[in-house]
Design a protein that fits this description.
single chain; alpha/beta; Aspartate Aminotransferase, domain 1; Aspartate Aminotransferase, domain 2; 2 domains; seven-stranded mixed sheet; three-stranded antiparallel sheet; 12 strands; 37% helix; globular; binds pyridoxal-5'-phosphate
Length: 396
């Protein structure tokens, strides 16, 4: 009997990808074992975060790093760091940003539901650019000069959502922001693979970058990585760590927190609700190590094999494997349905109601396509998912 049986909660085969709604992905046994081991001894959490900082710095090329409860959490504490710097009074007052740099410049087409995380700090988003797609005449998205134009004395940071299609390019955004002395905070939550992206945004000049620990990295679902400038990571750490301490007894690891740069110890900060435990921190580091060791080619081959297994089970239906030649991509199986026989919605719902339940990705349903994503499949899941999908398709 599993813990889920005991709770009366059904498990499902996740062929949708690392969706938080479906509990994210599957951690490797080694990662789970590292978390269990971490849970069996107490440590000074700042010392553990300092070790994480060294580890993340080595993996990303950044000066420092930190672990919080998700990419979203990392964006929140990263944005807070850009607002407050190392001023404990400001840290205490957030999300009241009166009298502080409290604006963030962001390309309008990059606005998304995750930007709640940065707005939660009291930052006000100043949108630039008009990606005219509906009138039919628009050809441009925001341009670097428009970001420059929107930067004022009240600008705490430029917020950039990384994506292969994002415009302007990150180096162009960094150039205008840095010319005005403004840091660039990057949401790269889902930008792995390719593995190069661990280093790429930092190399392109980003001051802080957030990655999700629970997506392709294969870490704990409630973990995220913040990588970047030492002073900003220090400011983020100070607003996240438990600081119920006496100043004269407080000796945080200097490479993470140089306490002599502070006029006093801040109180608990705005990031306190983004807590990561020792289990998440250790699990994330274990996953990061395995992710780097596996490499894009082996990971892609593993995912592609599952896609091929599923495509083979669907012989006779209109099925294509996307991303099969690009090791930087996540390959997927696209099933194109005959609208006279079954809609994408119906296929997804029937599979979810099946035994075992299989969750597919309906994002392309308006094009008549259902997608099978291999990222969260366990060994053997592809065979079962393929049979389940074929069984439902053959009924119509
Ligand atoms: C998934 C995602 C996030 C949130 O990541 P978590 O680790 O779940 O907090 C933020 N931004 C983007 C663009 C994402 O895709």
């Amino acid at each position: 009997m599993t813990v889920y049986d005991e709770l009366g909660v059904r498990t499902l085969i996740n062929a949708k990808g690392t969706a938080t709604r479906l509990s994210g992905g599957i951690m490797r046994r080694e990662v789970a074992a590292a978390m269990v081991e971490a849970s069996q001894a107490c440590v000074d959490i700042a010392e553990l975060q300092a070790a994480a900082s060294r580890f993340i710095a080595a993996a990303t090329g950044a000066e420092a790093g930190y672990v919080a409860s998700g990419a979203s959490a990392c964006l929140l504490i990263g944005a807070a760091a850009c607002i407050t710097g190392l001023d404990p009074g400001r840290m205490a007052r957030l999300p009241d940003t009166t009298g502080m740099k409290n604006q963030c410049v962001m390309v309008r087409s990059q606005r998304n539901f995750y930007d709640h995380a940065i707005r939660a700090t009291g930052l006000r988003i100043v949108e630039v650019g008009l990606p005219d797609r509906y009138a039919g005449a628009g050809v441009r998205d925001a341009e670097a000069w428009e970001i420059d134009d929107a930067i004022t004395d009240a600008t705490a940071c430029v917020f950039y959502v990384a994506d292969a299609q994002a415009r302007p390019s990150l180096p162009d955004v960094v150039a205008v922001a840095h010319a005005r002395g403004v840091p660039v905070l990057v949401d790269a939550a889902a930008q792995l693979p390719p593995q190069d992206n661990l280093r790429r945004f930092i190399a392109e000049g980003a001051d802080l970058v957030a990655f999700s620990g629970g997506k392709a990295l294969g870490g704990p679902q409630a973990s995220g990585v913040l990588a970047g400038r030492r002073d900003l990571v220090m400011a983020a750490a100070l607003q996240h760590l438990d600081l119920d301490v006496f100043w004269d007894m407080w000796s945080p690891p200097p490479m993470l927190i140089d306490k002599y740069r502070l006029k006093g110890a801040p109180q608990h900060g705005i990031g306190r609700s983004c807590k990561a435990g020792k289990e998440e921190i250790v699990g994330l580091l274990s996953a990061l190590q395995l992710f780097v060791a596996e490499g894009d080619a082996a990971r892609h081959a593993r995912w592609l094999k599952d896609c091929e297994t599923i495509a083979a089970a669907l012989d006779g239906f209109l099925v294509t494997i996307t991303g099969s030649n690009d090791i930087a991509a996540v390959p997927a199986v696209e099933i194109t349905l005959d609208p006279d026989r079954m809609s994408p919605t119906e296929l997804c719902l029937r599979l979810l109601a099946g035994e075992p339940a299989v969750a597919l990705d309906p994002a392309l349903r308006d094009k008549g396509i259902v997608t099978v994503n291999p990222m969260c499949l366990r060994p053997g899941d592809a065979e079962v998912a393929g049979q389940q999908i074929a069984r439902v398709l053959r009924q119509f």
